[in-house]
Specification:
The protein is an alpha/beta fold. It has a single domain, classed as Rossmann fold (3-Layer(aba) Sandwich). The protein contains 8 helices and 7 strands; from the N terminus they run E-H-E-H-E-E-H-E-H-E-H-H-H-E-H. The protein has a 5-stranded parallel sheet with strand order 2-5-1-6-7. Strands 3-4 form a two-stranded antiparallel ribbon. Helix 5 packs antiparallel against helix 6.
């Protein structure tokens, strides 16, 4: 397995982007960053403008030689995707995503009021104009990506990463 210094993780809500970023961060001792912190001026209420998001992401990329960035957004992330040594696309089953979002909204962070919107976004993720197409288009021509389609795939990737870091 190659040594990764810049990893970009994308996928829909509930796919485990943040958790995977934290696990990889811990194993590789690389800082992880959430695009939510760039996208939102005030958490889940006030969005930043496109120019401001691009500027903040560019500043983050310039400041850190090693990074893990995770998020759903596609509109301002091309620079990060191009600089990444590896892009991980979490393309998990619709039912699993829905279960995770419901669990998170009911028992963790979030509210019931936002649940319907999140479930609609998950349902619509793979429609022709949706985020799935934007994620696929973002990766066109990029040979540095892997698609993880199940919890088993994620576990296997982390196990391989574990084995790689133990031999260093």
């Amino acid at each position: 397995m190659k040594e990764y210094k810049r990893i970009y993780i994308l996928g829909p809500q509930g796919s485990g982007k943040t958790l995977l970023a934290k696990r990889i961060s811990k194993k590789l001792k690389i800082s992880s960053f959430s695009l939510d912190d760039i996208y939102w001026k005030r958490k889940y209420t006030v969005k930043r403008g496109e120019a401001e998001k691009k500027k903040l992401l560019s500043k983050l990329l310039g400041k850190h030689k090693k990074w893990i960035i995770e998020g759903l957004s596609t509109s301002f992330v091309e620079g990060a995707v191009k600089q990444a040594d590896l892009v991980i696309w979490l393309d998990l089953d619709h039912k699993l995503l829905s279960y995770r979002v419901i669990k998170r909204q009911l028992f963790g962070k979030g509210s019931l009021s936002g649940l319907r919107g999140l479930l609609n976004e998950i349902r619509d993720y793979k429609n022709k104009k949706g985020m799935y197409k934007k994620h696929r288009d973002l990766l066109k021509g990029n040979r540095k990506y892997i698609v993880l389609r199940s919890k088993r795939d994620v576990k296997k990737f982390l196990d391989e990463l574990n084995n790689f870091t133990k031999t260093d």
